[in-house]
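Hi P.,

Sorry for the delay on this. The queue was packed all week, but I finally got your sequence through. Input first:
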Amino acid sequence: MPDPTARDRIDVGPVRLSLLNLPAPPAVEETGDRYAGGRPLTWHLVFAPRGPLVLGRDRRLVRLESGSVVLWEAAEPLRLHAGTSAGSCPVRALVLHLPEEAVPLPGEALRTVAGRPVSTGSGPAALLASFVLGLATNVPSAEERHTAWLGTAAVNLATAFLESETALLQGGRTEPGPAEPLPTCAQPTASASGLLLRGIKTYIEHHLHDFDLSLASIAAANHISLRYLHHLFQRDGRTVGAYLRERRLEHCRAELSDPAEARRSVCEIARRWGFRDPAVFNRTFKSVYGVTPGAYRRQRLRS
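Then the structure:
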């Protein structure tokens, strides 16, 4: 079986994208470490823009209809079949290979959603599918310096999709909804902006301890302009600086109220959550809560 050409395997920052045109059975294409660049423990998100596809072998078979996506477990070889012999149009598959270390979700959570086809007609799945199809169309001609940003964006969108699926399963959903056609291009939508804003807030939450966290560094880390960062938060009803200050103060307030943190000084707590100057922290805390941090702690620990 001939190996796909280099043009069909695209390295995009930390991830790899495989573009496969599968003839009718019995021919197959197989992907594994050779497609994932030899990276250990690589998860595979398989999209069927023109299906159907059949994944796996023997008793482990999953059928993927057009306009669907499925996560394939890292420990299992990925074997793709065309799911029909009708017509002359080849079945098309896109595979986004995700190194396990790039996905900030535990393996246990990923295994709960692996092997479950999901429609790409709406929600995070639709946004992810649009982006991946755009990568398949445009990355070969993109400037090399942009590919790392695009790969990071692919990981973030894939993480949002996988996290949403684990949440749905925990909420009781057991069967995938009906598949809808894969979008042909990525269009900016309100849901896309909301997903991006949520990702930025998650990034901020994970970096509150960093003294050098700034509006410019937040925008750069999320591959958007400073102007667009302000725009996203204006739609959310607050400024970026206000949100950052609010989250840092809330963590400080919680620790000042916690008896388990009683041996930690007010200054230590402030520095832990990104306040470099104790005087600035005292003024900021008092302006929000009406009392100094020390007085607040005494009140809370006595109650």
